[in-house]
Fold these 4 entries.
Entry 1:
Amino acid sequence: MLRSRRAAVLAGGVALTLALAGCAANQEPAPGGGGGAGNRPDIPAVTTLPVPADAANPAGNGQAACAPTTTLAYAGALTGSNAQLGVNIVNGVQLAVNQHNQNNPNCQVQLKKFDTEGTPDRAPGIVTQVASEKDTIGVIGLPFSGESKATGAIFQQAGLTHLSPSATNPDLTKNGWTTFFRALANDNVQGPAAAKFMTGKLGATKVCVIQDDSDYGTGLAKATNDALGPVAADCQDKVTTGQKDFAAVVSKVVAAQPQVVFYAGYYAEGAPLDQQLSTRGFQGVFLGPDGVKDPEFVKLAGDASSNAFFTCPCTPGELVPQFADAYKGVSGGSAPGTYSLEGYDSATILLKAIDSGAKDRAAVQNYVKSYDAPGFSKQFKWDPSGELATTKVFGYKVENGQIVPVGEIG
Amino acid sequence: MLVTHLLARGQVLAQGPDWISFDVGAFVDQFWSNTFDGLTYGAIYALIAMGYTMVYGVLQLINFAHSEVFIVGAYALFFTLAALGFGPSAPNLNVFALVGDLVLAMLVAMLAAGAIAILLERVAYRPLRRRKAPRLAFLITAIGASFAIQYAIFAWRGPNPEPALIMFRQQPVFEVFGAIIYDQQIVIFVAALVLMVVVDQFVNRTRLGRGLRAVAQDPDTATLMGVNRERVITLTFLIGGFLAGAAALFYVMKVPAGVQYNGGFILGIKAFAAAVLGGIGNIRGALIGGLLLGVIGNYGQTLFGNAQWTDVVAFVVLVGILMVRPTGLLGESLGKARV
């Protein structure tokens, strides 16, 4: 008797307060709910991408000959919480190898895949194993900056060339490694490109830069802030990996009323930040880098994600029809993702090294070092440290729950 | 003079090295909005802290698996809301349908969390109690159970959080000291407070509550007086689970994409700290501790402009208070908490 009365009181009390919510929720959006300048810029999606007619193709001329033991390897995440990026890359790599082997009956290159789970503590053991297999003369990997940093010296010692399709930390090329090459712009390029995009196409006169506590986020925020200058000088904040509630940051941003919030970090924190900003009346643009550009972002931010733009040193492979169609045959139907095209181009360069007659690691290294030819994503020519001479950064946005490219931004 | 100096907008007191700086201007500007946001989040801490505090009060056991009781409730809530048609956009429902849906989802979450709490007690703690195991064994079992549930969810749902479910669009209701109060804040704060008052009254005024207090004070004497100790323990876990399930509703309301296998971990640590801050084993202490921790965390973030300081500030305050009052703000005992 007593218990049921208590239960009734409890249910009643909760229902009452929830009813309060409902009343308020049913009202039309009140004006002046808080910061942010309205009039979000409308930058149309692009649907075509110019590709050089002479872009390096893995099929080659069909006349290549090589030893049947010739092996390339992919090392990077295939499982674990960051697996999707690795899967995007490995599908591009697999496609390049398949196309090569179909067209070159006398040169069947083997592809071995090694799973690092994307972690710097697991990668060194895996890479040591890769390096110990003498038939492996070139590697595509490693995708992440942290694991690349932890394993570069092992590759260097083994004289084994590796092309990273996605590691962006600027310091990776400052270690004196001669076997490391990356197939994209580093964060010292992405940051200024993002700054130019914000003050240019997005028309921002005031920007808030929020960074996480990772090497990636802090480095990128610094490069972006340096390029933004006074536009972002008095609106800065730092969040931490794993944070879910951003109330204090949101208050600061809403009070500052910027046109753009740039978040230097990953989608796991970026998505709830964007969601909480939107629900508190922020009406500007949320801009995230390649670490935020992921379908998972759209899922976790809900419909708040419609205010999101992204910068990424990744070329949109989905706009290269001949690549996108063939890719679906390898990936089981899904469209190319972030860094699929960079994976494809990286593998193509190593395959061309093999086709040119390179039989050992030293010959592959020499070939890549002096390589200078267009790929599907960009022109590939490296300086001695392993940085590309010419780089591209693309803009993306969320449209109807999908991430679509808006063209090159730097 | 000093005050005007401190109040200058964006004043940075200790510049130079990048690792620490104070933004007193922002701290003052956002004082009230941080306070109200902190109270909202603190109310969620407090609801979860109740589970820690009650179990400790009755058993002197720190139930580290309570954060997983919470996350099981959050998953139950997620699936119920998803089945009711909630998605990435706020639904177009009238007030009664919305409240009905939310109450239903909350009840399911409460039942699921309550069930897992009782199951936990039966499987992990009761066998140890039967064998009169030392305290340390309970603690290790609690940690083990926490990991077991966490990784069972990981194996089932994978590493990524579940998609966001938006319950309703937040609307500003009124303004206090220049800070806008949103309906969501009112709902969370008031509903959490109501729930805690109900539990407090239940413990202090009902027959079952008296039994609970009796066991907390002196289990042997209580048993001699005819109180069924095992039943009281089950009840304690059940109430803790119910409150964790309710907390799941308010947490997902605030963080729509917060349902993740390890999503309860940090929250659990904060809630436990809140329980200690208020005086572990003390129901009203859990409330005070939770609210305080929520508010202090927000102040820290704004003052230092860096969320890494949120926890530092919160825990420095915790240590500071425990040095002055070693048993927490309101003292330790559940049995004595009837002032």
Entry 2:
Amino acid sequence: MSEVVLDGGAEAPGKDGFVEDWSKDKQVFGVPWGKAMMWIFLLSDTFIFSCFLVGYMSVRIATTDPWPSPSEVFALEAFGYPVPLLLIAIMTFVLITSSGTMALAVNMGYRKDRKKTFWLMLATALLGATFVGMQAFEWSKLIAEGVRPWENPFGAAQFGSSFFMITGFHGMHVSAGVIYLLVVAFRVKNGFYEKRGGNYEIVEITGLYWHFVDLVWVFIFAFFYLW
Amino acid sequence: MSYVAIADRDHEQEHHDPQTFLTKYIWSQDHKVIAVQYGITAIFVGLIALGLSAMMRLQLGFPNQFSFINPENYYQFITMHGMIMVIYLLTALFLGGFGNYLIPLQCGSRDMVFPYLNMLSYWVYLLSVIILIISFFVPGGSTGAGWTLYPPQAIMQGTPGTDWGILLMLASLAVFIVAFTMGGLNYVTTVLQARCQGMTLMRMPLSVWGIFIATILGLLAFPALLVSAIMMLFDKTLMTSFFMPAISSMGVDPGYTGGSPILFQHLFWFFGHPEVYIVALPAFGIVSDLLSTHARKNIFGYRMMVWAIVAIGGLSFIVWAHHMYVSGMNPYFGFFFATTTLIIAVPTAIKVYNWVLTLWQGNIHLRVPMLFAIGFIFTFIHGGLTGLFLGNVTIDLPLSDTYFVVAHFHMVMGVSPVLVVFGAIYHWWPKITGKMYNETLGKWHFWMTFLGTYAIYLPMHYLGFAGVPRRYFAMGNTEFLPDSAQDLNAAITISALFVALTQILFFVNMIWSLWKGPKSDPNPWDATTLEWQTPDHPPKHGNWGHELPVVHRWAYDYSVPGYEEDFIPQNVPADKAPAGRDHGEDH
């Protein structure tokens, strides 16, 4: 197959194509099972993160103690000055960059360039691991300053509770993603998928998960660090 | 090149038949075996929950006669009875049991799309059940917080099981959600992506539609329960204050500050209300198929039935706060949620009318599954009508937390789905086991269960009107209640014990059938859907032998004029039988 189309689907564009897809027998979407399942899983996961964020907003409104100022709590000392959100800016940059390398890996996967796919996925995993590492640094800094899930010196106790819970849950997603990326990357490298018909859709499926984790971070960043 | 559907591939995936006993029946990846495993486990925990309800009824009917029931374990019985029945029995049985069995067979697939994940789903579910059962035996016993687990009381001293029980309950729920997600992703993907040739969505039997939409609801609603379970676990173990306000417990300040108990209620009911329909929609779907098959008539208004399922599913996400009228939330919310709640009555009523119209002028065979299906229509209308009372804020306020509520939800999501469960088991039993059960025994089982449940729940409405509060261990000196309320309670208890014992008939029947029952015909009900057309009976691993079936018509070609038989299976080609009324091709 020299010609590569990433996504099969309806012939007709727009509403007609939509109706055509859903009226078909056999399958609704012209995509592999794993990809369809990943999309549905991500939809479900979206609801988990939405509930976390709504819960966080709700307790932030409900609590009577003052909420700590994020730009002071999350400031980092640089050149003798406290720079607000410095670490978070770098972390966000790292994670967004990893989405870029992931997108390139997907492209290389469909070109069946196993070597480049492997290295790009490895780079993605390394950037992800860097993100988790910086998060660990941020956690230990806050813990050293006395922030705990049940109390903190800056104000409302819910600040620490929500922070550790939500960033922790997201960090677990990133860590799981790093493991997932490494498994797929090494399978790409050692020819595992060649034995299964040379099909590299798995790279894109992994990529879906990875982009999702990035997107969630953007929302956590906006609601937690910028609010 | 678009992705090639499985039914179009030259050589399908090879299916290696499992050889050993272990891979065939224990670590099985076959959806039919997994379905039976789910079913047996769910019914087993359901029996525990039935036993708990018998204990509760003993106390209520004959207060203080039994030394083994004290107020603490009464609350534990209530909690575990509710939680087990709703989640570990009904959700698991309808989706894990019937979903697993029916989706691949009725869609014409060889199996779920990811059988290994499907197998994991069952074993993780079993783990959640084991954690749940362990909680009965830890110090302090299982939690007694009520099945809604409302904080602050759920994790405060004074509630039974506040040390270990609540932790294990929350952990078990989290594990259950993981199991459900693994199964649910499989069910949805299989319905969307792995149907056989000719099987359009609008030709699927309504059973599959009900299970499909219910699974989507589950995938979107269980996240809220997961999140609230995690947050409550942290409130309990890490002393966070998500749900816990500043509070004093027995004169001691436990150290909580500024949390919101109402937040828990919102999260819980954002899960809890769709959960009602996670149980109800598969029942709706299955009952439609039972009625149509045994009335030898196509289901009335198939398209309307499908869209009603979809509409109910969508609406179920915007009604949750009707469980919270008395919680102290903003009264304007009540106005909104009462409106959306009453709107749900429209698609639901459409379904009920269509069931009745399906029966109208049908060639009704009052076989056991049909009896249960018709029984469902009675109990569901009954429970649905009382729902209209409770959905209105002004009527709900005086009735809230009385036995009227208990009667309502037991009629609508206790008795009704359970009747469908029995009907469905009787209906598909010949396909699952290849054996027939005893018809007479089945009919006795139906009549005693059906009339018995009315004897239990009808009087409860009057108790509710009289103001008998639910969840009370004993009435004590309540002067506004007449003495006859206690007589009624005793009568209810006797009926409840009677109905509980009646279920022995069911198990005797099924065990006898497995052991000595006559072999059944491959299609004993002359049904049209694909699971009755399998080449082997009961179907083997891979379901369809060498060739996948090809579907030529919708699932309801019963009594088509001009055809010698009164049913045309879905895989009979158009040139061999009249076209019937295929709604799958007319758009």
Entry 3:
Amino acid sequence: MIDYLREIISGTWSLFVGLGITIRYFFQPVVTVQYPYQTLPMTPRFRGHIELVKDEETGETKCIVCGMCQKACPSNCITVNGEKREGVKGKVLTEYTLDFTKCSLCGLCVESCTPKAITFSKDYNLAGVKKEAYIFDLKKRLEAKN
Amino acid sequence: MSAFAESEANETFVLNLGPQHPATHGVLRVKLTMDGEYIVEAEPVLGYIHRMHEKMGENRTWAQFLPNTGRMDYLHALAFNHGYVSVVERAAGIEVPERAEYLRVITSELNRVSSHLLWFGAFILDLGGFSPLLYAFDDREHILDLLESVTGSRLTYCYFRFGGVYNDIDDNFVAGARAFIKRLRDRMPMYHNLVTKNIILMKRLQEVGPISAEMCRKYGATGPVCRGSGINFDVRKHEPYSIYPEMDFEVPVYEQGDSMARYMVRMDEIEQSLRIVEQALDKLPEGPVMAEKVPKIIKPPKGDYYHAVETARGSFGVRVVSDGSNTPYRLKLRSPTFSNLSLYGEACRGMLLPDALALMGSLDLVIPEIDR
């Protein structure tokens, strides 16, 4: 009987202790951010979808069309095509397509790239209604930047 | 349990729990044969998100399977990463630099804490308490930010590589991790006051869902489930890998075998993981984070290799069979929750439905890992 009463008292007290904690936290500053009005700074290492890097000297892409990224990709979402042009050493990039519907953002392509021609973008607001919106033509994106 | 199964057999009915039910945390279906409020039989039905990860491994090169590991157990992705890279390193005979091993342990222990914090929030949510989830997510957010700053992603990390890790950490990470350890240690008493000592939680967990040590052995349960039943088994201690032998930590074991014991094991494990991270940060050596002589195309010699790691839910083992080519011949994944769930049918026989849900929550199920 005494144990029973003791349990009721200690149990009720435990509820008040919990309520005390929530009340204390109620008066502490808010920890959440009012997205999209406020955003947090992004980490420089954020792995977004890939993007072609501009060569600072030539203003063109650094890609040498070796196809290593295409081979490294686990989901076959990269298509690279190039052609031989007269007067230019090596191949010239004609197509670089990323099928973002299949990409799992693993970053194996960026690691496999010897000339460091691809990097991660910082895009994360990716929402759309059509599948075609996620077939990225990265060459066009690079040219649009110039 | 005295009122159990007093009615005739033809008075039972079948209740489907799931495949879309908030308490099953994913697409798990449990076929319950009920006698009123009591469970006569429970049969977990799996396969709703089976993605053939094992078969996928056979069709990809060794490195291409890496991102898959994080998709199995998305809450403790780094441990699954660790298991896979370790087995391939063992097969191909790749030496890992010491600093990389330290980074692996630091990040995967932080990941374990974040997994336990999410479990803590979701478990209390199953039992009907909402606010602890918000406190847990507040702390978990700090870990996700830390891991994002070093790995680049927040959930499905693919950070470990054969022969090391993908990125080195910087001083900000070390300072952030130390600040987080202090923060969480300061907040642990708050969690215990808010939740553990709460009379409602105690009444719902104590002596509910008992799992005996024999049952754990019979079904191969590992992790906090078996440690809550008095079996002292932790892969980090008993089949040590990486730098765990150099770390000083304890394996929390509770004898009771009820849901409360499993709850306490996980809460104690958070503190032990913080201890490991702290020690690893103190001892962190300088040096490279990637082995120098890692071949670009990995072709392990013919043979059969196995490596187990301790994830937040138990022992995760990877067995690979190599035929000397650039893809695995066979890739077998032994996931902990699959075994932990197997005992559910036997353990919840004769229980009330709400108690069975408390038991299910205490098993810490991650469905993508059960189905693979």
Entry 4:
Amino acid sequence: MIRMRLLTRGRRLLLLPAAVLVVLGVSACGADGAPGDDATGDSDGGSITVFAAASLKEPFTALAEQFEDAHPGAEVTLNFAGSSDLATQLVEGAPADVFASADESTMESVRRAELLDGEPITFATNTLQLAVPPDNPAGIASLDDAARPGVKTVVCAVQVPCGAAAARVEEATDVELTPVSEESSVTDVLGKVSSGEADAGLVYVTDVRAAGEAVLGIALPEAADVVNSYPIAALTGSQESGAARDFVDFVVGDDGRAVLEAAGFGAP
Amino acid sequence: MELTAVRLPRWVLVLAAVGALFVVLPLVAMALRVDWPHFVPLVTSESARAALLLSLRTSLAATALCVVFGVPMALVLARTSFRGQRILRSLVLLPLVLPPVVGGIALLYTFGRRGLLGGTLETLGVDIAFSTTAVVLSQAFVALPFLVLSLEGALRTVGTRYEAVGATLGASRWTVLRRVTLPLVLPALVSGAVLSFARALGEFGATLTFAGSLEGTTRTLPLEIYLQRETDPDAAVALSLILVVVAILVVGAAHRVRPLGGPATARPPAPAVRRAAGAP
Amino acid sequence: MGLSFAATFAERNLDVSFEMRTGETLAVLGPNGAGKSTVLSLLAGLLTPTTGCAELDGAVLFDVGGSGRTLTEPRERGISLLAQDALLFPHLSALENVAFGPRSRGVPRTAARAAAHKWLERVGVAELAHRRPHQLSGGQAQRVALARALAVEPSLLLLDEPLAALDVSVTPAMRLLLREVLQERTAVIVTHDPLDAFLLADRVLVLEGGRIVESGPTAEVLTRPVTAFGARLAGLNLVQGRRTRTGFAGGNGIEVPLADRLPEGTALVLAVRPAAIGVSLSGHPGADAAVVSAEIDDVEHRGDLVRIHAAGLAADVAPADAVAHGLVPGLAVDLRIRHGDVTVYPTRREEQESGRSTAGSGR
């Protein structure tokens, strides 16, 4: 069974209401899936919590299911959010067994906090594409088109990984975009494009794929060299380090490869 | 006669204390995290200044919009009765309880390029998408109920008796409104406007969804904080503290506005001094 | 010329019609909920009648329910209203309150202020011109409100229990002021107090359950009440008389010294409560009391007290005393009235017949 926790923004803020609940004599426990909870007794299994970048939502949901099928008794709880959100939570002491990040620098910040059990392994790559509304009203066919005056192009802000990647694409292709908005997340970029508010948005190939019919992807051969690497690692705080390592192996293995490729991710 | 303080059951005090802590402690915790040695550079960076200025400008404009449209709305709700008035009132107050993102989506489908009015606006040469206007619209949308609510309540409290007197003295409807009604509810209008301003200043969800985020144009302080958090948590915390301080000032100002007509007389009598000989 | 009024108001089950001459003052009396204030609101234009028609000095106030529907806006009726509460605009000074009406009617600011000053002087509070309403006492505020109502020179002045909210210590002075300003003015006053009716009004109209149950000249209605309410109204002893050199001389022989400066011959009315009149077989006039000797006309047993009627006065005594003195009709008694228990006012009109005492039966 897969449990998805609601996105927890800053775990610290959650402590106080929890304390209030305790004062009131109400138990807030049980929802977290403590180890041993409704376990089948199979020694193979273990409950692990995986923190994964938001862009991994679809492949990791499928992978967790497959992992549970392959390891009877295993239970994977997934928590998806922006990579840097997750890293902040981990550094602040959030309990998790595995971390999968959308870029290497975020993983690096967790490693500096000495939370990694072993070296991170790059398991997927991602490149950027232009997303345009299905009817492509501005007739975008290339990055140059997106840079034309009067074309409303939206990118991620440089502070977030997709924005950093966009900046590298601009540098590599020598095209200067004048975006009308620098959004905080891929979701916001896609939202502006799919609603027709923007003419084009620079996002990951996998985001375009995940958005389905809502947007049309314009491949950018000139941006193929700008590759984002996704590293994964087990964490030192894990109570189920065996299961955690098993999950990492599963993701980097053939099963993982197939699922990720289907979602549009490139090979490492 | 001696007044004694009203005694409350102890558990009420305990729960009240827990509730107060619940509100205050997170603010304290945040203040503790501020990188004080670098506080000034953090909050005076170019992007922070741009965001703060934009926030102040747009919030003022949104407050002005709220006053221009909210005062007539409150008057209509408080002084007239018509079929569907209850429903209208509920709808007007909806932005209070709606998640701001929902507000943003709704605005998008109204004023967006492909929205209900988008085509009309485009032919008129008005382009709202990704403009500061979009920010102001988002803020006004979420802030309007505050003004309408506080003003309508005040209008109902004041009643129509003064207005009736004004009318029998020969004042036109406009004169009654200008010289009687509005002065009577001025304190509520001011505090409503202040609350609207505060709400506009804090607007995040609708702006993010509807207006986008570009430094100096649409990236208000809350959006800047949200973005800074990705890479520079210290800056985010410092800017958050600025917003908290502004919010405290604004709420304080709203509470200082006194109702008309009684400085000294309206105050409750000073509590009597308790006898020293009494029990603890 | 004057006022003609006929209206129904379904919400309050009201159906009232009456006429007034210009310069006349009409008192509307009646129990709570009788519809008194509704009549004023209909006149002022604050309520719209279900049906009816009213004209003031030839101008239509409303004409509803017939062929057409005419409703003159309150501000164009030339009617001003003084309510129980002064309702001074709290954000304006006393002077600005009074100037509000003239200003609203287009009088230039300085002229309006000058007029306001004049009216404040007229009601005796010129020195309070720059105070805010919250700095005024109830009596002062009501004076300012009166000035405000008069400053628009209304064709008709409506007064809705103008004394009811005032402290008893200031009502006599305010009552005299009203009496002064209502001379020759067309006014309708709603009141509970028969004294107000007596002093201020030429005619009385008694409302009960939304209908007129009695109407006529004040003295007539109050001396010969035909309804229970009218009788209750008349519970107060009212004695008409004149100013003599030393004081008040009533038609029934009562004499009370007065310290006022009214000219001799002024028509006056004296009011005294039945409970304040002592009954004995032989009373002695003293420095502080008047005595009227008369034969008992009637003895009325009213539960815990006995009401004696004599010399047009009603006096309440304890049943034990009534038995002890053997009080029966025809017995000669002395009615003792302490000077401190009476109130004496000039009556509204000289031409009101004098010398007649009035006493009610029942309260």
